[in-house]
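User: Fold both of these, please.

Assistant: Here is the first one.
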Amino acid sequence: MNAHEIDYKIFGEEMQYVEIELDPQEAVVAEAGSFMMMDSDIKMDTIFGDGSNQEKGVLGKLFSAGKRMLTGESLFMTAFLNIGQGKKQVSFASPYPGKIVPIDLSEKQGKFICQKDAFLCAAKGVSVGIEFSKKLGRGLFGGEGFIMQKLEGDGMAFVHAGGTLARKELAAGEVLKVDTGCIVGFSQTVNYDIEFIGGIKNTVFGGEGLFFATLRGPGTVYIQSLPFSRLAGRVLSAVPRNGGSKGEGSLLGGLGDLLDGDNRF
């Protein structure tokens, strides 16, 4: 597989975007909804699957699209092709505050495993597939289910991490224990499993879930401080019920609502 060789720049701090520079006839594929802006002479096309060179005929395209459907993603991706004469730029934005992580698959032995909603965009020719868990416990309790995404090829791919990004280089046999939702991705050489936290107090009152992930080296691991599921949970917990005020400040907040006439009887 020979993916298109693309150049890129990442801009911003908390809400980043990546600018991809395309030579004539070079292309990049991206998740629907990640597009930000592009120069003229770039042709945008909706395609089945990931547009990788492995697709052959209608059946190949349907199989590629079906793999994406299993991960909960759309059947379609968007390809951006430079049909002009000179270099052109197209940019893709982060879906929420965090960091964009460039992954050179040629430095990862041609494969990188990530959580199913982390992928942002990649050079055309990179295959975006699925990685099945072979262990029952990992699939049932891992937070991401039986399926994670795998990025294969020899080109550049970009994934998104929420909040602050931590990169860990694990030596052979070195183990890192991580909240299951905080995993962004890891090298194919890293062994991934699920471990029960244990202890009655930890289980009942810990508030951190019943399981965490164990990542065993060698390899590179990317960890995010703000998974989208955690962000969404905090937002939902702050939404007032029945249309009333949440009452910031506990007792004083509730008293303020009474004085303001927000509570109706």
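And the second sequence with its predicted structure:
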Amino acid sequence: MEQQLILAVGECDAENEIICVPETVNELFELPFVGGVNRTILLIALAAIIVVALLYFGIVRQKSRLIPSKFGAFVESLVSFVRDEIAIGIIGPEHGLKYFPWLLSVFLFVLVGNLFEVTPFINFPITSRIAIPAFLALLTWVIFVVSGFKEQGFGYLKESLFPPGVPKPLYLLVTPIEFVSTFLVRPFSLAVRLFANLVAGHVMLSLLLVSGWVFISAQGGIAKIPIGFGWFALGIGIFVFEIIVAMLQAYIFTLLSAVYVQTSVHPEH
């Protein structure tokens, strides 16, 4: 039976290795022409610059125009969506505007970082590195815990760990569950949800497109070429799907962050 060979490195022992594995994957993240700076750090800085540029040219510079440009209208629609549907819609008009700048920053940064996956010559979502979703989730955790103590004092712990209306004997079971769910599971699930979705999409997209190229460029007859184009077509379909996933995951991360704050500042809900 003929064995298929997938080349993952420049040099490979084709006789003894079916799948060639590189000794290190650092080249995926490190930039040899920038000493001490890896690819992820550079893309984080680029994402931050893009977010600042969007807000500056889409909002600040548009104030001098009588009629906003199409770009300004687009950015303003994003800002209005986060403000009205997430900040005010979830947290409420009393506290929503207070947390709006943070929610807008998180939404735009995660959105840009996610869209790097489908950006030509980048093709790498920074949110597929667990440190970034973990940091954002930890920041969210700090904000909603501090907000809870600020609004309710130490009654925040009482409301969180001892929900009213529960029979007292059940607190032995409910209180540990509420503690784990509120203070441990929330940041963990928030980070893992974003990380897992972007990693899965990035890996699937890479495998489909690379496999398509391997089949099209492989030697051994033209029979493999249709298979390669089939993989490419499927990869293009996943490419469009990943654009939707990138936007959806940015929305979900921001929405859940707002929900967590809402439960801290409005214990009655």
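Residues 112 and 159 are 37 Å apart (CA to CA).
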